[in-house]
Each structure stands twice: as C-alpha cells, then as structure tokens.
Amino acid sequence: MSSRDRDWDGVRLHVVTGKGGTGKTTVAAALALALAAEGGKVLLVEVEERHGIAPLFGLDSLSYAEREIAAADNGGTVYALAVDAEAALLEYLEMFYGLRRVGGALRRFGVIDFATTIAPGARDILLTGKVTEAVRRRTPQSARHDGPGPYVYDAVVLDAPPTGRITRFLNVTAEVSGLARVGPVRDHAARVIDVIRSPETVVHFVTLLEEMPVQECVEGIAEARDAGLHVGGILVNMVRPALLEDSVLAAASQGVVDVAALTRGLQAASLPDPSRLAQELSKEIVEHARHMRVAAEARSRLAAAGRPCYDVPFLDDGVDLDGLRRLACELRDQGAV
Which superfamily, per CATH, for 13-240+314-333? Predict the structure, then answer.
C-alpha cells in the first residue's frame, strides 16, 4: 500500500459500530473501498446475519466463503465475508480437533445451536475469532526466505454490532478465557485478545447529527475507553450542507424570516402565486435552520469526545456502488485513510 499520510496508518482491523439507523454498514463499505484505493487487498466482514453489505454492491447475498466484490483505484480490491457462527464452529473444530467430518451429525442433533445458545458469549467468540484469524492470516513464504509471508489482507473492516453492545462483543473472549487454562481453546482465546487489544485495531463510531445517536456515540466511546479498547474516529453520516448564510440561519432558527423579501424574489422570477409560495418556503427555511442549529450543537458534543471527526455526505440518489465510491473519496480527502 502507498506511504501517503493517513490518520489511521498502521491500523489493520477497523471495527465500525453505531446506533441502529445511523448507516454504519454503508460507512463500513465506503471505508473498505477507501482503504483498497491505496492499492491493497481489503476484507469487508459482516456478522449476525445482517445481510446489509451485498445489496450495496449489487449482489444477492454473501456467504462464509471470501469473495471479491469490488475493484478500487490503484489496483486495489475489496473482498467480503459473512461470518456465520455455525460455519465458524465447524472450522474451529476442524482446525483444532480434526472434527469437521462430524459437522452433519452435529447439525442433526442440534449440538451447534445448543452450544451457541447456552454457553455465555460462545457465538460472539466464534465471530470475533474468525475476524481476527483473517487479520492474522499470512501467505505462505517461499523456501528461499525465512520468516512469515506477507499478510493476505492489508486491512480488515468489520461491520460490527450496534454501539450498545460493541464493548461486550469485542471483550467477550477475554471474559471467558479464564475458563480454559491450557490447550487449543486457551491459545485461540489468547490470539483473539491479542488482535482486539492491539494498537492495530481501532473502533470507529458512526453517528448522525441528532440527539440520540450522538448521546449513544459519546457513551459508547467512554465505555470502549474504559474497557481498554482503542477508539478510532467519529464518522458523521448523512451530512447535509447549510443552504443559507449564517445570519439568515440564525434568524430563521428563531422563526424570523423576511417573507416580504421572499415574495419579491419569487415575483421577480415570475413564479405563480408568489405570496403563497413565500409563506410555504419560509416554513421550510425555519425547519432547515433549526436542523442546522441542532447539528451544530451535536458537533460541539462530539468535539468534546476528543476524537477526529469525518463527514460522510448524504447521497440524494441513494446508495449504490457509485455512491460508495464517492463516499470513499470523501473519506480519503479528509485523511480518514
């Protein structure tokens, strides 16, 4: 990948979380494209059967098999993976115990559902384990060279659970690792913890400039810090530009609009029924101004969190691959990656 300065240079696992409805899956996808535009290979991962990534890239669905889903600038590529707890458990059993062949029997007897239901955090452990394995995975080194080969993926982006449970999700392996003092389970847990707690892993928070998402974002950042996680940036999604001058916005936010001036302007433009149209337009102006005031107050609260903030613009035409590329460019222009 290039040597261009980036705010998160050296980070290999980007965990993206946010309150439900803030568009964190869209932002995670744009972030993956932005990282791949460095010319590298990026893996975009979703968990908990959310099925949100595939439609953004014009696909029907994702599976447990990693597949290329988009090309980026400079020869970079984005791969995607939907982590399924059952598939992760079977892979784990094969890796450590050579038991993959018994997978059919385990399914028939419901052992997998049983294990991931009654064991506290078992499902989350399987999901984070698969993600961190992708982060650690290296290509085979040739016999002529000593040491491990290069990483398969230059970066991994995780479309993670919502803010309300992200800390528990990431720390569950550490909480239960004491149950296994020795053996492959303990070794597996230790490797997962090493990746999650590494400075090469950061948690980014997606929010809207609205009261509830901002409140949850600020609380989530504090909780993540208290848990010893590395907090990344704040990605402010669906940002709309101010359409009026500051003085006009300030007055309109208090309900003051020069309706007479509006009427004269509309009349000069030869629009029909300018008086009625000016009254309707004045209401829109007041609403826009008050939205801008709320957004400004939200930005002040986010600034107090002490993390870099990046604006992700609202896409008037909806989100598709072209829209994601635009958002990726915006992130890169702001130095997010």
Answer: P-loop containing nucleotide triphosphate hydrolases (3.40.50.300)
Q: Minimal CA–CA distance to 217: which of 22, 47, 13?
A: 22
Residue 59: phi and psi, rounded to 5, are: -110, 155
CATH 3.40.50.300 residue ranges for the chain: 13-240+314-333
pTM of the model: 0.87
Kindly report the three-state secondary structure assignment for every residue of the chain: CCCCCCCCCCCCEEEEEECCCCCHHHHHHHHHHHHHCCCCEEEEEECCCCCCHHHHCCCCCCCCCCEEEEECHHHCEEEEEECCHHHHHHHHHHHHHCCHHHHHHHHHHCHHHHHHHHCCCHHHHHHHHHHHHHHHCECCCCCCCCCCCCECCCEEEEECCCHHHHHHHHHHHHHHHHHCCCHHHHHHHHHHHHHHHCCCEEEEEEECCCHHHHHHHHHHHHHHHHCCCCEEEEEEEEECCCCCCHHHHHHHCCCCCCHHHHHHHHHHCCCCCHHHHHHHHHHHHHHHHHHHHHHHHHHHHHHCCCCCEEEEECCCCCCCHHHHHHHHHHHHHCCCC
pLDDT tens per residue across span 260-312: 999 999 999 999 999 999 999 999 999 999 999 999 999 999 999 999 999 99
